Amino acid sequence: MTYHADEAPIALAARGRVLHLDAHDPPACVVMAEAARSDRSHPTIVSVDVDNIYDGLPELLPLIDILISSREFPHRLTGIADERASLVEIKARYGCGIVGLTKGAEGALVYCEGQFIEAPAYEVPGGCRDTTGSGDAFHAGFIYGLLSGEEVETSLRFANAVAALKCRNLGARTALPGKEELTGFLDRNANR
Length: 192
What we know:
Layout: E1 18-21, H1 26-37, E2 45-48, H2 57-60, E3 66-69, H3 73-78, H4 83-94, E4 98-102, E5 108-112, E6 115-119, H5 134-147, H6 152-166, H7 179-188
């Protein structure tokens, strides 16, 4: 579904601690991000999952706190092939607090406060059956970590773990872990 800017449900924008956007409709996302940022007494973190260049994206990106994309997106956006250099460029151009990319079976990389943080992927228990929704699972794990008060590095491990566990079964949500399962999985894989 496409939202036009005047159709954006702005009353919902600042109701939570995080507003997570998919950037398919940048003009509507801009309205939502601005609404989320409008109440400085109750700041809402604005996060985005973006994989393609859409009309209006340059107006949206300066409003984003957390931008974690697919591996290919930073190169598409900046024209810079080197992953690290492209993340530094995104940070310089748009000012996002955290910029990063997912690398599938190789894990993920983020750039935050002038430092790169890498986290390896986890092996999918029982083997990978379906990657549908694994990017969304990754974002959920990362945001969960941050909202739980974890450092970026630990939140990145949460993200990779949730994505790996999701891939155990067919479908986007069928294998998403609960808190106890996630904690147990991370404990069993603490040496990674």
